[in-house]
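pinned: reference chain
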Amino acid sequence: MSSSAPPRFDVVAKSNDWRGTVRSATTAPLSPAKQLQLDYWTAFRDYLTERASSSLPHRPQPRSWASVSIGRSGASLAAIASTWDPEHQWDGGENRVELGLNGDDAGDVYARLQNERKAIEEALGPLEWPQPDERTKWRRLYVSQPADIEDRDAWPEQFAWLEERLQRFDATFRERVKRR
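pinned: its structure tokens
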């Protein structure tokens, strides 16, 4: 009598967050700062969902930013809630909405946007246009305000500010960043 090999089972389908679920079950608890960030972005996403907002960020993560797709690879919007602001030195941190560009053509897209700066700032108001580091492909421009993300009572006002700017950034940049 011959014996056959035992059956082999391969996972052919799994949920999108399967790896994260397994990883989170085996990792250490979040630090208080990381838990605050996760709470902030979870509440922000809930706020936007309740308002049926078109500016819905990706799944909340314990970090200082939440990414929002803008319809082009190498370009994205980010809502940022930081307890520290290296550029303005505001007490208590900042909220920021940022257009980020990355990739081989990021410098060209950024230069094109700088050529349209007057029209862009007429739509959005004054923006920060940091001098890019030529050693990297990363480019960004943003608007920010002081914010204390540890003050949970202030979150609705911060969320309204972030949502409004995300929508305006999307309307201003979505088609601009797609042009070649």
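why pinned: Helices lie at 18-26, 32-50, 106-115, 117-124, 155-178. The chain is about 40% helix and 15% strand.
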